[in-house]
Each structure stands twice: as structure tokens, then as C-alpha cells.
Amino acid sequence: MAGKTKKFRVATQGATTDGREIQREWIQQMADNYDPAKYGARVWIEHIRGIGPDSAFGAMGDVISLEAKEVEDGKLALFAEIDPTDELKAMNKKRQKVYSSIEINHKFGDTDQAYLEGLAVTDSPASLGTEMMKFSREAGDKSPLASRKQHAENLFTEAVEVELDFEEEETPKPGIGDFVKNLFSRQDTKTNKGFEAFGADIKGAFSEFAQRFDALSTEVENRPTAEQFSQLKTDHDALKKSFDELFTKLDNTPDTSRRAPATGASGEEETDC
What we know:
By secondary structure, this protein is α+β, with helices and mostly antiparallel strands. It has two domains: 2-168, no CATH class; 176-245. The protein has six helices and ten strands. The strands form two sheets. Strands 2, 3, 4, 5, 6, 7, 8 and 9 form an eight-stranded mixed sheet that branches. Strands 1-10 form a two-stranded antiparallel ribbon. Strand 4 and strand 5 (76-84) form a beta hairpin. The longest helix has 29 residues, at 193-221. It is flat and about 90 Å long.
């Protein structure tokens, strides 16, 4: 099942909007400052913020996180990760709403730093293209885009084509305990008592096996990691080396426990006849 998207580029340093260029520090500030708990940027169609829950211009998702990375020519680019609605997923599957534009507040709140306040998707790049941006800037309050901004001095970036790549959410695999329970939950309760007793015994045996297996799995998971094992091996090798050096030293030490040679006699045996 498709979930959130992988990060995709939404803005690049130096790109023109309404005559103003996206500054490198804006990109970095948006990535550093973004906090959905403080102010969560939502995904809209054409930057139009619908009011009613059933509006055709309702929110299409939420921006989860932002990241700044250097791209070609050393320019800094902004990458976004979004949590799309089912409607946006369906649109994207049909190759609709494949262009993206962001709304930048370059003096957010009392921070005097840039912040991402919204992300838009559109089918027509011209509707949020360079010419429209310039026209809107010159028209001021009479601009067709003026009412879509959160603040008058905010700027919309030129729409660029994006490819939303949805991550697959893994469905948790049932443990062996769940497997055993599901297996025996399918038993027919109308069977005779003898079979019920037999089934109860088998169920108990499998349940015990499941518990032992889960315990073993936990034990295996708690075993030393490769790094820990490597450290243990290093310590063992060092200890072995110390013992080897000690044994070598002992082997080379003169043996002083031998009996001293006898003195004073010729060594010939005398016989008393």
C-alpha cells in the first residue's frame, strides 16, 4: 500500500519567481526551521485553499519534512517529503497534478528567516509560470494570485515538474503464535468430544511451541552484534598473545631444579669379599 512520498525537489537556489530569486539562505533556513508541530505546510491545488471539507480545492496532503542538499553546479536545492491524500495519489496515478510550486515566507513570524507555508500542485505550469509570477508582482493587490497568499510579501515559486515516488508500507507479518491461533480458530465446534479433547491437547502443544519459538527469537535478537563479536575476538586474541608470550618466556628460562653433580669419589664400586 502506498504511503508517504520519497523526498523530491521543490525549489532550487537562484530560480526566479516574481522577479525575486530564491536565496541560498532561504533554502537552508526552510529546511532547518520546518516543524509541522509549529506550522504545518499543506498541499493545495493551484495554491487555492478550499474552505469546506468537500471543496474541490481541499487540502491534498501535508508536508512532513524538508531537506536541503547541494545539486548540480553547487546550488542548494530544497527537497520535500509529503503525506498525500488518496485523492492526490489517484491524480498522480493518472499523471495529473504533476507540477509543483511552493509558497515561501522569507520573514516568517518574528524570526526574520524563511519558512515554507504551502506547497501546490497543478496541471498547467503556465498558471504558476515565470510570466504569471512577474505579472502578479507588478499587479500587486490586483494580482489573481494575491488572494491565494498567506501574506502579501510571500512569493510563489515557478511550477516545476515533479515525480512523486510513493514508499510502500510493509504489512506486519503475523508471528508464529498468531499463525497457530488462526489455524485452530477455524476448527468446527460441532465435532465430537473426543476430537475436541485431542484438538485441545494439540493446541496446547503448539501454543507451548510458539512461546518457546518466540523466546528463542528474542534470545537470537539479543545476541551480540557483529561489532560486539569483533571486539570480543580482538580481546580474546590479545589475551591469547599474552599467554603465548608468557609460555615462551618460561620455555627460555634456565631450569635450576636439576641435581648437582657428585664430587669426592672416583666412581668405582668396591666389593667387600
